[in-house]
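Recall that a protein's primary structure is simply its ordered list of amino acids. Everything else, from secondary elements to tertiary packing, is in principle encoded there. The following example makes that idea concrete.
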Amino acid sequence: MSFLNRIARTLTLFLVLMTAGAPAVRAQAAQTPQAPATTAAQDEYVPIDQLPESEKLPAAPFLIGAYVVVWGALLIYVLMLWRRLGRVEAELRQAQRMAGGR
């Protein structure tokens, strides 16, 4: 099995396992107690650096991680297509040589 095929299979397995675990995370999030209906941030404008840590959303690492996964998967896919296209072109050249170089 080639290196890229192993990477593609591993990535696919990882994505399937992550997708399978998503309902459990949602169920756990539904059971966590909710914050009070209004907070100081909802009553008026409060700059992000003045908010308490419990009200800051650490979404940037997740967003960056999602972009890394998507771009990585796209790069692996393009590399796999490039290698397959090279093989097809080599087979076509060989077939042309065998057919008399038409």
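The mean pLDDT is 81. The longest helix spans residues 60-98.
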